[in-house]
Every structure is written in structure tokens, then in C-alpha cells.
């Protein structure tokens, strides 16, 4: 009897999480037509978002966890600088070449090591 109730508890938690997620999304869809995207709130939100992405990127480069921690810090920084250089140098469609550069260089280091 206890296992049956435990199984139901997991289903109730899953349904509750789905309902909570979709209610928030539905509210966002309903309110989105009335929001000014050029307001100070959205500028602040964009700034916070970019700051979080930048801080997580720096943390990943300087304080990695797992397999990336075996790569010396100077190599991680060098690959990052080269990828940013590719992003700055290419006038159009900069993201994909920069990501490919970083990925290929990191995989090449792993293969040669």
C-alpha cells in the first residue's frame, strides 16, 4: 500500500510542476502584448542577463569542474581569446565560427594530449 501512495506522489509532483510551468507561460503570453520592450525594466533585465552569462563563462574558464579542469588555465584562456578574436574579425555570422574555433581547438588539445 505504501508503494502505491509513493508512486502517486511522484505523479502528483510531476503534474503540479507542469501546471505551474504552463500557468507562468500562459500569463507571459497574455501580458506580452502590453509590454514595452524599450522600457528601462527590459534594459535592466537584458543587462542582468548578459552579466550572468559573462560571469558563468568566466567561472567556466577559470574554475572548471570535471574534465575541463584537467586542461591548464593558460590553454583555456588562449582558446577563449582566439575564439573571441574570430568573433570580432568576422563581419557577419560571427557566433558559429567562434564556437567552432573554440570547440575544434579544445578537442584538438584533448586528442594531442
UniProtKB/TrEMBL annotation:
Database matches in InterPro entries:
Brnchd-chn_aa_trnsp_AzlD (IPR008407)
Membrane-traversing stretches: 12-32, 44-62, 68-88, 95-112
Signal sequence interval, chain numbering: none
UniProt keyword list: Membrane, Transmembrane, Transmembrane helix
Q: Does the keyword Repressor apply?
A: no
What protein name does the entry list? Answer: AzlD domain-containing protein
State the organism of origin: Polynucleobacter antarcticus
Amino acid at each position: 500500500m505504501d508503494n502505491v501512495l509513493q508512486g502517486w506522489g511522484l505523479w502528483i509532483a510531476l503534474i503540479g510542476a507542469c501546471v505551474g510551468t504552463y500557468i507562468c507561460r500562459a500569463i507571459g503570453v497574455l501580458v506580452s502584448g502590453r509590454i514595452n520592450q524599450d522600457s528601462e525594466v527590459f534594459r535592466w533585465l537584458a543587462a542582468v542577463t548578459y552579466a550572468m552569462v559573462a560571469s558563468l563563462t568566466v567561472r567556466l574558464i577559470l574554475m572548471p569542474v570535471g574534465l575541463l579542469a584537467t586542461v591548464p588555465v593558460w590553454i583555456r584562456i588562449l582558446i577563449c581569446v582566439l575564439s573571441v578574436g574570430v568573433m570580432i574579425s568576422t563581419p557577419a555570422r560571427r557566433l558559429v565560427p567562434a564556437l567552432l574555433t573554440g570547440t575544434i581547438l579544445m578537442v584538438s588539445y584533448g586528442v594531442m594530449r
